[in-house]
Amino acid sequence: MKSTKLVNWFKPFFVLSILCGFALTATAQNHFPSTVGNSWVLLSTDGADQRTYTFEGPETVNDEEFTILNIAKETVGTGVVVFDKSWVTVAEDGEILLHQVAFDRGAFGIAEATWDPPVTNFPAALPLGHTWEIVTETVLLIVGAATTTSTLEVVAIEDVETPIGVFKDCVKIETNRKAVTALTVIREKEFLWLAPDVGPVKFLDDTNSVVYDLASYNLVEPPAVEEMPDVEEMPDVEDTPVAEPPTTEETPVTEEEPVVEEEMMEEDMVEEPGTEEPMVEEPMPPKTSSFDVTLDPGLNMISIPLMPEEPYTAKSLAEMLNATLVIRLDTLTQNFIAYTTVDEGDGFSIDGSQGYIVNTPAGEAVTFTGTAWNNQSETEADAAPAAPTLSTNKNTWAFVVTSNIRGMQPSTGYVLVAENLRTGTIATENITSDVKRSAAVWADLNRKSVVEAGDKLEIALYDERGNRVSGPFQRTVTTADIRNAFLSLQLNVGDVQPKDTILAQNFPNPFNPETWIPYQLSKPAEVTISIHNIAGDLVRTLDLGLQPVGSYMTPTTAAYWDGKNAVGEHVSSGLYFYTLQTADFTATRRMVILK
Prior knowledge:
mainly beta; YmcC-like fold; Immunoglobulin-like; 4 domains; 4-stranded antiparallel sheet; 37 strands; 7% helix; flat
């Protein structure tokens, strides 16, 4: 086992955990399909975090070909995405061999590890009770030598319910990780659920109590769906044994006997004159029919061909179609209204007089059952489903930006604004505080692309007076977002993101003996404030560390200086200069101590 390039780690905890944390995310035959192009999106239950698994490649390294599993871990709404990559090969029996990993920690550098020879990352078979172990020996920059042991066990075979459906007979894998260094011992626990022929459907970070559920997935070669009969099949006539007729000498029934019997019954049923009652025709029950609609992967336009026994809602229709979203056009306002699988509640009602845009990442044949709509002929109903559209993973002609907005004030109106910075097109939605989730919709009914993978979207929330009260946040549209046809993020009223990094005037000024230094950051940065006297001598350094995007303009958030030098002595009255410095920004202002 060789380890190389462990650079700039901000936490020994992360280093120790990730080197063997990939044991859960490798492929397994029949449980984690490894075809290049397959992808899965798992969303945390609070909608704040997202994990996207994608198989990419192949990639050739030193004349050996590998498949890459790319795991993007994203805090929704921040635009910050961390990528973990693993280079694997699959043996003939389905065993997964791990050769190399690279963990991108943004400003904290990239850690790489190489196994030579490769280690068994995922066995070919996963029976209940099966246990295996991965041991990693490495040297860390901060804590030196470290030994990390991951023990994995199949602890259950169970059904898993997710927002997009229930998956049967999932393998539940428990990982217990122990990292030992000269300074400390760190323990972690995780769980992963794998559905047969589907892949990851649930992930639990037990250490931090975060649960992720499958929100959508795309398989290049989707598993075949077994169609189960609705009723028990009757045996074929040819296979049914025929009983021998009895050998008794009974008189055979003639063809005339039923006629005589019928005549006798008719005579018995004749009523005397004056006793006849008018015949009342019993209403015929509605004719129940079925209609098959084939949906392509991606966006489709459909209408409901038959009236169901129970009316559809946007939620129930999405569940039936395995769709990530349903969009309808409000004919009165001419605005699009969207329902996504991350929304709470049932969404809007579905009827037979409208067309709907639905996004089905996998695509499949769906059977509608019911009766003819009372305002349509059966011919019209049969022709109702519109032709499905072709879909790619690069662009889409309907796209939704949806947000669970928190902190809205009662009786206050807001506007959600999303702008595609590439095209300049803007989507908006007017909302009030009684709405838990809002959605801004782009749609082109001529099926021209409105959003492409790689587009940067800027999202902000404004109050009814036009003041920005949240954002703007920038999000880059991924191919996974295109497959889902929506992008979800969390907005909080009051979370205003500065567009520029600035250094403001300290307050109070003049001061004695303490002051606050306000600033704002347009992107995360390591922040240092240095204070010099009028002669240019360094008096004090305030090392604020890594600070996220935000405004630090109040006494509770601004940098604080107690008027003392580096050795704790109060400085004398006079003119001083303070300088804020980040990796790409420097600014200086003056302040006065007056005693």
